[in-house]
User: What shape does this take?
Amino acid sequence: MRHRLRNMISIVLLLLVPIFLISCSGDSKSSSMLSPSAVKAPTQPPTDLTAKGSDGKVTLMWTPPPPVNAESYPTSYNLYWSLTAGVTKSSNRVLNVSMPFVHLDLTNGTAYYYKVAAANPAGEGPLSAEVWATPLLPFTKILTKLMDPDAEQWDEFGWSVAIDGDYAVVGAWRSGVVDQNAVFLQDAGAAYVFHRANGVWDPAGTRLTASDAQVDDHFGCAVAISGDYIIVGAMDEDGGTGDPLVDAGAVYIFQRTGANTWDSGTKLIGLDAAPPVGSDLPLRQR
Assistant: This one.
């Protein structure tokens, strides 16, 4: 009897051992916890990366890379950025970011370029497509009223305007000018150049006048700016040596020499400038 019972116990144990081993081993691929050796670095970059600038910051959003398999799923992201286009993994970086990410303490008016890479414990994947954004002051802070710093009645400041980048030039074609002999030249005209730094316009500006200003020249009736050069029209300037060409007109070109300093200008007149037709007398004397 004891011998028979012992045999039955042995048979039961033999049947239970394989079941126990199978239940302990399980299927590693179906387990929610992957072994370290099974994890692989992401093979795809994030997609649909966008960047939106606001006051002193840029907000970035993206779409996780398409799932290739559970082993390469990203657990975090690394952000790469630069002040010039062509971001690489050697550029500035911020590790272990999540989406959305807000890049703070930025300079308004400066462009920032970005790429994002997915990462997990096994490593980092390739970079996404590049995007860029420029932090800017909100409209309520951008709105700035610029006025003639030495305004006088009838100056007509704002008759002509032009802007390029961080510089704006405004004509006041009827502004009076005091020459080197302290003589007031009515309607000689002037132009004012305003500079913007960190999104804020300097209201003081820089005043430009013709080096040979005369009464009624109307310097500032037209203005233009491109890069480091400003051109100002004086439609009623008397041209030629000794000013025999009444109201023939001229233009003056100024070159920037500092943050908002400009040289004394170069005067240009028409090669075929002529006095008024049908009279030997200047118009102002008729």
Summary: The first strand starts at residue 47 and ends at 54.
